[in-house]
Amino acid sequence: MKYMMFVCSDTEPDTDQRNLPDIDAWVAENDGRGRRLDGSAFAPESSATTVRVREGELILTDGPFAETKEVIVGFDLLECADLDEAIEVARTHPMARLGRLELRPLAVDGQ
Amino acid sequence: MSTSLEAVAADAYPRMVATLIRVTGDWTLAEDCAQEALAAAVQRWPQEGEPGNPGGWLMTVARNRAIDALRRASVERRKLAEVAALASAEAYEADQIDEVIGEGEVVDDRLRLVFTCCHPALALESRVALTLRTICGVPAADIARAFLVTESTMTRRLTRAKSKIADAGIPYRVPSGPALAERLPGVLAVLYLLFTQGYNADGRPAFAEEAIRLARLLRRLMPGQGEVSALLALFLLQHSRRAARQDDEGNLLPLDRQDRSRWDAAAIAEGLDVLAEAERDSPYALQARIAACHATAPSVPGTDWAEIARCYDALAGIRSTPVVELNRAVAHGYAHGARAGLALLARAREGGELDGHPLAIAAEADLTAREGDRDRAAALFRRAAAAAHTEPERRALLDRAAETERSAPQDRAAETERSAPQDRPAETEHSAPQDRAADVERQALPGRAAETTRQELGS
């Protein structure tokens, strides 16, 4: 199954920040095992543009679609056997402790 | 249903559902086919007689229904072949093991089902509902009634949970290695909630029997897991008092007013046996040991309060909560005198979470009375009555206030007899497991927090 993993900031990170996993090692490990298909950090949130079309008119908004304290700062596209494997991949990402991760399965055909 | 069919169904239903889910991957189909098999038995057994292998008969009917349904839906041939190849009725035995994996580790489909229903990616309330519906076969309407939601809310909750299992890729598997140690407490927390949370209209636990049945099943399928044994022991020992816990009007009776001859001696004996398998100082074992002290005592004054106080000390050491501290103060009050109890009670209240709680006020009243300050004790009992959550609780506390005022200062023996702790359904099990589950999974029970607290504290 494919899971989109949103990497998000969090207002209450782990209080113990010793021994944080290394992001490069995490990427290498999961790329190597074929569990990470793609991924990147995002440019700062201030660079976001929200796009809507209403009654034929293009409406652009400066900034992200929702103003929240927790923002999406990156993504990884995972290929895992099931949710348990995806959780194992996510829990070793440094942002599991510095922020939070959201696992969203991609809809499969027929859904 | 006849008694015989009921007994067969209790064992066969989860087997049918669990196996059909593994093979078809379709939860609703599995439940429907298992229900249809039971319905067929209700219809045919009275006329044709009970088959020699009733569990196998039911499994065959359920399997055939599944094949029919899949055929109608023209599912791909592979799935159909798998279902058709399912263990035939002849091969079905009471403790049939479905598959051997890894180094001789055996996994039963029902165990897979338990771990999937209790997966931590599901909300705790969904796990409880799904376990009752899918494994125990309890109708959604009954679950809804016990958990104080409408049937349609409960049905939606169940549907959502099943969709999430399919859509999010929650595996149908028993975790192994370190993952098992991480996941088992969450499963036990669900059983614990089944035992302590839902209540019937008459105030009795609605699903205590189901929780006991599931704990027995886990103990059989996962031998050597001490916490499973501890939990089963706790259930059995608590449940042994079920017949004595209420008077004819349905009021909860304190321990000193229960007819101990009505306690279930067989359940107590089994509970003590099972408790011997548990580790000494795990949270469930400590609670079970407290329950064992009560279950084996001849009377309230004859109870081993020193041991109960030690168990609460250990529980507080693992995880200190206001409720554990409150119970600890009460236990020390019996074991080491009212003054010791009052000192611990003052500490339990420091955080402020027990402010205005009727049981905390009643405990202070009780300890104050035993210290000899009757006027103050009576006033405290009245304050506790004003804060009471239920009418019977309020009446009982007002009675205590009146008795305390009446009793002569030299009447101390009777006083001790009278000041027994309430036998609440959650008398000893108030806190550690739920807290622990929350600890492992960092999950709240949305919308039920206040109610949980109330029931934990002992309405």
UniProtKB/TrEMBL annotation, chain A:
List each copy of the YCII-related domain by range.
1-105
- Which SUPFAM superfamilies does the entry mention? Dimeric alpha+beta barrel
Note the InterPro entries from the entry: Dimeric_a/b-barrel, YCII
Q: Which PANTHER family match?
A: BLL7171 PROTEIN, BLL7171 PROTEIN-RELATED
Q: Which family does it belong to?
A: Belongs to the YciI family.
Name of this protein: YCII-related domain-containing protein
TrEMBL record, chain B:
Q: Where is the RNA polymerase sigma-70 region domain?
A: 13-74
One Pfam family recorded for the sequence: Sigma70_r4_2
Q: Where is the RNA polymerase sigma factor 70 region 4 type domain?
A: 115-165
Residue ranges of the region described as Disordered:
385-459
The Gene Ontology biological process terms listed for this entry are: DNA-templated transcription initiation
Where in the sequence does UniProt note compositional bias of the Basic and acidic residues kind? 390-442
Domain DUF6596 stretches: 183-278
In Swiss-Prot or TrEMBL terms, this protein is called RNA polymerase sigma-70 factor (ECF subfamily)
